[in-house]
Structures are given as C-alpha cells and as structure tokens.
Amino acid sequence: MSAHAEIVQTPAQAVAERQRLRLGMFYVVLLPVLAVSILAGIAIGSTPIPWQTILHVIGTKVFPHWVSTAGLSDSDIVIVWLIRVPRVIVAVFVGAGLATAGVIMQALFRNPLAEPGLVGAGPGAVLGAVIAFVAGWTLHSVLALPLAAIVGALLALVLVYAMATRGGTTPVATLLLAGIAVGTLLSALSSLLLSLHIVDWQVAQEIVFWMMGGLDSRTWTHFWICAPFVLLGLAAAMIQSRDLDLLQQGEETAASLGLDIEASKRLLTLTAALLTGAAVAVAGLLAFVGLVVPHAVRLVVGPSNRRLLPASALAGAAFLILCDLAARTVHPPTEIRLGVVTALIGGPIFIWLLWRRSWESGEGSAGQ
Amino acid sequence: MNTLATKNASISRNGRCILHSATVSLSSGQLLSIVGPNGSGKSTLLRTLAGLWQANEGEVLLNSQPIKTFSRKDVAKRIAFVPQEALMDFSFTVGEIVAMGRHPHRGRFSRETASDHEAVENALERCDVVQLRHRLVTTLSGGERQRVVIARGLAVDPEFILLDEPTANLDVEHALEVLELCSILARDGKAVAFATHDLNAVARYASSVVLVQGGKLIDAGNREQVLSRKNVEDVFRVRAELVASDQGHPVYVFHRRMDNYPAQ
Question: How far is A110 from chain B (nearest CA, A)?
C-alpha cells in the first residue's frame, strides 16, 4: 500500500513542482520587466533628465523629511513628479484594470477571446465622455470627463442586463448579444454627437483624440479617479476567483456545486464594468489590452483564476507602460495615440494567438 | 436513510409544459433509472430532482422537507449532478476539476482541508483517473472526460448522485465501467439515479425504473414490471423481443414497427 502510494506520489510531486516553477518563472521575468518599464517610463521623454535627478526628485517626494530638494530645479521637479510619474502610475492602473476586466469576461463568457467592453461598458463610457465634451462640462472640472465615463459604463451595463434578463435569469449568450447590440447603438450615438459638433473643430478634435486613447497630460487627479476603482475591482475579482473557475465549467455545473449563478454574474459584470469604466475614463479607448494580456498570461500560468488575476493585472500594467513609451518615442516630437499603439501591437499578437489556437486544435483532431 | 422525491412536480418552459405532475422518489441504496425516448423529459425530471430547476407546480422534497428551505450550498453538499456534456474549454488539470467538487464544503477564504484532500483522492481513485490527475482536461478523450466529471460529483461526497445520460458518449467498455461504478455506489448506500435510453443497461443494472414519455410518467417501480414488453413497445414505438443472454441477463432486441409510420 505504502509502496503504491510512493509510486503515485513521485510524479505527482514532480508535476506540482513544475507548475510552481512555471508560475515562479513568470514572476521572475515579469517583476523586473515591470520595474524597468516603470523607471524607463519616467526616465525617457522629450527633455533628457539624468537618472540621478529622477531618483532624487522621487526621493524628495516619497521621503520629504529625509531627502532635501537642494540642487533640484523647479522644472526637474515638475517634469518628473507632476508629468512623468503620474502618467506611468496611471498606465499601471489602467493596464491592470483592463486586464482584470478581461479575465472576468473571458471566464464569464467561457471564451478565452472575450474582452472587457462586451457588456456595453466600453461604448457606454465613451458616450458618457462624449456627452461631457459636447455639453462643455469638461471646461469646468477635470473630474467631469472621468465621472461621465464611469456613469456611462454603469448605465450601459444596466441597460444590457435589463435587456438580457427574463424571468430572473440572464443567459450569458443573450447577455453577449445584448452587449453587442447596445454597444453598437451607443457607439453610433457617440459618432452622431461627434458629427453634429464637427463644426466646432476644437471640441471635435478633442473628442477624436480622446477616443483614440492616450495618457498625455495625465495628473495625480487621474490617478485618484482611477486607482480606487481598479483596486476595488481587483479585490472583488480575487474574492470571486473560485466562482469564476466554477462558471468556466458551465452554469449548470456551477449551480449544482452551490454557486448562486445569477447573483454571481451580476456582481462579476458590475466589477468588470467598473474596471472598464475607470480605465476608459482616464485613458480613452485602448483596444486589445484586456483581450490579449489575459489570454497570453493564461498560456503561461494556466486557467486557475486565483493565479491568473494578479498575474494578468501586473502583465497588463507592464504592457501598457511599454506601449505608452512606444507612443511617446517612436515618432518625436509627435506622440502617436496610445490606442493606436495598443491596437498595432495587440492586434498581431491576437492574430498569432488565434492562428496558434486553430493550428493546435487542427493538430489535436488529426492526432486522434 | 436519505430520501429525495418530487411530488406532483410540473415544469413549464416557454409556455410549454415539459413535465406533468411527476411523483418520483429516490432513497439510499437505490439505483434508479429514468428511461424514455429522446425529448421525453428524462433530463427535466433529473434536473428537477437535483433542485436545479424549480417546479412550477408541486414540490421537491429532500429528506421530507421542501428543497427550497435548504440553502444552495446545503443542497449542493447533498446532491451531486453530473451533466451529459461537460464544458471543458479551459485547460484546467484533472486534479483542479475534481477539486471543484469540494466547493460546497469550502468557505470563500478557506484553504483545502485534510477532508477535502481525502475526498478528492478517493474520487480520483474510484473513477480510475488517478493517473490522469495532471493531464489537462482539454486533452482528454470523451470517456476520460466523463469519468473526470463523475469524479467531481463524487468529490462532493454527496448522499445523492444524479447522472444525465452518463454512458451516451462512451464506448462499451467505459459504459460498463460507469454503470458498474453506479451500482457499487448504490451498494455503498448512496442514492443513485441516471437518465438513459439504453434499455439493456437499465435491464442489467437498475434496481428500479421510471418510464417517461412526452413529459408524463408512464410507470414506475421494479424493472420487470416497468420495462414490460408492452410498456417498451408503446413508449419507444418499436417491436420488442425480450431474450435471455448466455448468462441469463434479460436482453431487449428491437425491430422497427412499420405500422405506425404511415399513420404519422
């Protein structure tokens, strides 16, 4: 009996070890990449600033009692602390938020290629923002645009959910269709508003630029708008990580294992909508981040959501900082819009993943 | 002694009644088979028993109490449901899938306990999937998947195990293995019910049978009585012969009945 147990256990431990190793390797690679991206994001820009100065400025802000500002110019402090650091930090939270929302959506729709905007939250946030622009609210407060976007995301979710719910149940297939329908409708409304205001070229230009996504002139205010939602959303997703695992096995199985699936779906879509809304609110539309990052990370760390959520959040952060760095530096002095960069990088990765997937499944059936 | 029963349970979907006033009971040690042609309401009856679908009329009783009075997790701890088609689009390992059977026993933040571990090991062993533990479920054959899903149900350590067409995707060998496992579980004191249209499987293994057609219960009771030639011929609309196998098992042989086709 004991000999038998040993025989069974040895390969078991080896495989468990390999899984841990894979997850460990992921972080061993990712964490330095993230750290370097953050430093590079702060150090690289149109005005060259030596890295000693950068660390000095950050030191005076993080430890004001210990590090004196002696020897620093005001412009150094402004560029580092008020322009570059918030931009990078906002990129961290936007990237993490979109990736987390993507993980939730992919589990909920049981489709590894689902993306955060599916339940109308993305187009809803855009419409909210466009309304804020054309109504002139953005002139009064820097808060108007992000708040309008978050409210837009939530209202769109409520609308989609109401459309897809019948007799207390919300089938995910219907939710998906309602999400696409409402999303298309809201995007059309955004375009309508835009075309009605095209004569006011300054407003129209602002809208178009914003819709293409970007992190230019983001401030600490944007950080404070976005970070709480992202942290809250990430925590909510982690708390529900096992529910996500169950939902990935199908709703009937999840229900038979004791999950209140309707309540769970409501909470999860709300979490994803908040994350998407908060990200769109401060960065505009950024295609493919929430689609590609979770999918790629899943290939490395596996589908278990308890491992996948934090890994995707960190990878999303690193991915977005690097995309933003590319947006700023590829074609100086013009900045390429960040949404264009994420699409240009994410699109090919996505196509490669699709191609690999169909190749794998073709191989699988041929093998049988 | 645990009992699970429907009492005059009716289910309507999209304005159509798909289960008419069904009264069925299942208790410890029983191996109940729900038999009927495609679309007869077998799966509906099974889901109603499992508490997954709420009866529009009538009620479902778990140990003589309405199932509605139990919490979702309490029901899930007692009744395991094994679906016919398991959705396995994500590359979880077999071990992870079977461990999900412990969900009703675990708190949101609790780690796996010794009894969770033991239940999972036990389930893996009983369904003969120990050696598959680290395989990705996306790489398994249909028969292996079915055994993994049954193992997840066993990991719940339930009082009742309800299986929907458990042998539909299996070859003869694996189908026999699954049916054998069902009868062992019943012998060990679990209450087991499975839906099927394989009459020979029923004739060989089930202790009692419920025969359904068009959402109605036609007959219920012991096998010889319910699966009489007349009942089988009426419900499945075939001509049936009942012969004895070399080893004395009753075997049905079916022939197309030409008389009812022109009438259609």
Answer: 7
Cβ of B135 under 8 Å from any chain A Cβ? no
Amino acid at B2: N
Q: What percent of chain A has pLDDT over 90?
A: 58
B145 touches chain A (CB under 8 A): no
**Whole-prediction pTM:** 0.89
* B158 near A CB under 8 A: no
Q: From B179, B237, B175, select the one nearest B205 (Cα to Cα).
A: B179
Please give the average pLDDT of every successive group of 10 residues along chain B, which has 264 residues. 91 87 92 92 93 91 93 94 85 93 89 91 92 90 89 95 90 88 93 92 89 91 88 88 85 81 51
Residue of B44, B103, B136, B145 best to disrupt the A interface, most CBs of A under 10 A: B103
Angle made by CA atoms A165, B68, B185, in degrees to the nearest 5: 110
Is some CB atom of chain B closer than 8 A to the CB atom of A246? Answer: yes
Contact between A256 and B101 using a beta-carbon 8 Å cutoff: no
Q: Are A33 and A60 in contact (CB under 8 A)?
A: no
C-alpha closest to that of B55 among B7, B124, B93, B100: B7
Could you tell me if A305 lies within 8 Å of chain B, comparing CB atoms?
A: no
Q: Give whole-number Cα distances, A277 to A219, A235, A362, in Å.
A: 18, 16, 38
The shortest CB-CB distance from B104 to any of A239, A250, A258 is to: A258
- pLDDT at A9 > cutoff 70: no
Out of A110, A249, A255, name the one closest to residue B100 (CB).
A249
pLDDT for the residue numbered A345: 93
Are B186 and B208 a contacting pair, CB within 8 Å?
no
Spatial contact of B60 and B51, defined as CB atoms under 8 Å apart: yes
Q: What ipTM was predicted for this assembly?
A: 0.90
How far B70 CA lies from chain A's nearest CA (Å)? Answer: 11
DSSP reduced 3-state for A166: strand
Q: Is B111 on the interface with A (CB under 8 A)?
A: no
Place of tokens 């990200």: A279
Q: How far apart are CA B68 and CA B55, in angstroms?
A: 10
- pLDDT exceeds 80 at position A364: no
* Nearest residue of B to residue A250, measured between CA atoms: B87
B107 vs A: CB within 8 A: no
Give chain B as a 3 state SS string: CCEEEEEEEEEEECCEEEEEEEEEEEECCCEEEEECCCCCCHHHHHHHHCCCCCCCEEEEEECCEEHHHCCHHHHHHHEEEECCCCCCCCCCEHHHHHHHHHHHHCCCCCCCCHHHHHHHHHHHHHCCCHHHCCCEHHHCCHHHHHHHHHHHHHHCCCCEEEEECCCCCCCHHHHHHHHHHHHHHHHCCCEEEEEECCHHHHHHHCCEEEEEECCEEEEEEEHHHHCCHHHHHHHHCEEEEEEECCCCCEEEEEEECHHHCCCC
pLDDT tens readout for residues A167-216: 888 998 899 999 999 999 999 999 999 998 888 888 888 888 888 998 88
Q: CB–CB of A250 and B80 under 8 A?
A: no
Lowest mean per-residue pLDDT among A88-92, A352-356, B230-234: A352-356
**CA nearest to A109 within chain B:** B89
C-alpha to C-alpha distance for A242 and A259, rounded to whole angstroms: 10
Size of interface A-B (CB pairs under 8 A): 78
